[in-house]
Automatic annotation (TrEMBL):
<dbReference type="GO" id="GO:0006635">
    <property type="term" value="P:fatty acid beta-oxidation"/>
</dbReference>
<comment type="similarity">
    <text>Belongs to the enoyl-CoA hydratase/isomerase family.</text>
</comment>
<keyword id="KW-0413">Isomerase</keyword>
<dbReference type="InterPro" id="IPR001753">
    <property type="entry name" value="Enoyl-CoA_hydra/iso"/>
</dbReference>
<dbReference type="GO" id="GO:0004165">
    <property type="term" value="F:delta(3)-delta(2)-enoyl-CoA isomerase activity"/>
</dbReference>
<dbReference type="Pfam" id="PF00378">
    <property type="entry name" value="ECH_1"/>
</dbReference>
<protein>
    <recommendedName>
        <fullName>Delta(3)-Delta(2)-enoyl-CoA isomerase</fullName>
        <ecNumber>5.3.3.8</ecNumber>
    </recommendedName>
</protein>
<comment type="pathway">
    <text>Lipid metabolism; fatty acid beta-oxidation.</text>
</comment>
<keyword id="KW-0443">Lipid metabolism</keyword>
<dbReference type="InterPro" id="IPR029045">
    <property type="entry name" value="ClpP/crotonase-like_dom_sf"/>
</dbReference>
């Protein structure tokens, strides 16, 4: 499902196995538990890198789990439950008191793309990975907090249109131009190394974690309102 490791001040959250890393209640709970550990162990200079094994970063919500509910209504209920369960995970990322980086070395689709977008920085493998908001293709509207995230992270109206009204499969170079991704790299190793380079540079800053989280939240006010997150003033300990 996922593992959490720490090397120096850098946490590595890894989606494990060669599957699609579909976001079902179990994986969402495991991710939230890992972030809780990160939050409790973080110190000044800590940074989180999230990565995944195999061909996928995450292929979104677990539709097979939803369909296993039996009836169409039960399947819809399971899907809506995953939408509700995923929302506090996004909130956890917004409140995490350290910089976060997603190393997207495989496809990131729908909720899997939103998982990547919940990070402060994103590096992406350029030869095989795509970013894809698939809701239009499967006939599903976007949850309100998905839309708020997209509006906050994709500055161009044309880019937002291509992502959600064209359901385009965005490759790394285009994702960089759209602002979805900070840099594109030809291999998995180079993608993770680029994330590590960012993490090491940010870790040297040794910023106050509470101030970092609050400033992050201030950049996405619409999203934070939908997530139920309130602003908290942070003042320097020494004036």
């Amino acid at each position: 499902m996922c593992t959490l490791e720490k090397t120096g001040n850098i946490f590595y959250l890894t989606l494990t196995g060669d599957g699609e890393h579909r976001l079902n209640p179990t994986l969402i709970a495991n991710l939230r538990s890992s972030l809780s550990q990160v939050k409790s162990q973080a110190v000044k200079g800590s940074v989180l890198i999230t990565k995944a094994e195999g061909r996928f970063f995450s292929n979104g919500f677990d539709l097979k789990y939803a369909q296993a509910g039996g009836s169409p209504q039960a399947a819809r209920d399971r899907l809506l439950n995953m939408v509700d369960l995923f929302k506090p995970l996004v909130a956890d990322f917004m409140c995490l008191p350290i910089p976060t980086i997603a190393a997207v070395t495989g496809h990131a689709a729908a909720a899997g793309l939103l998982l990547a977008m919940s990070h402060d920085y994103v590096t992406m493998r350029s030869d095989k990975s795509v970013m894809y908001m698939s809701e239009l293709d499967i006939g599903m509207t976007l949850p309100d907090y998905f839309t708020a995230m997209i509006r906050s992270k994709v500055g161009s109206g044309g880019g937002r249109r291509n992502l959600v009204l064209k359901a385009a499969k965005i490759r790394a170079e285009e994702a960089v131009m759209m602002g979805l991704v900070d840099s594109a790299h030809p291999t998995t190793e180079e993608t993770v190394d680029a994330a590590l380079t960012i993490a090491e540079a940010l870790g040297k800053k040794r910023w106050d974690g509470k101030a970092y989280a609050e400033i992050r939240k201030s950049l996405v006010p619409e999203l934070c309102a939908l997530l139920g997150l309130k602003d908290v003033a942070v003042m320097p300990s020494r004036l």
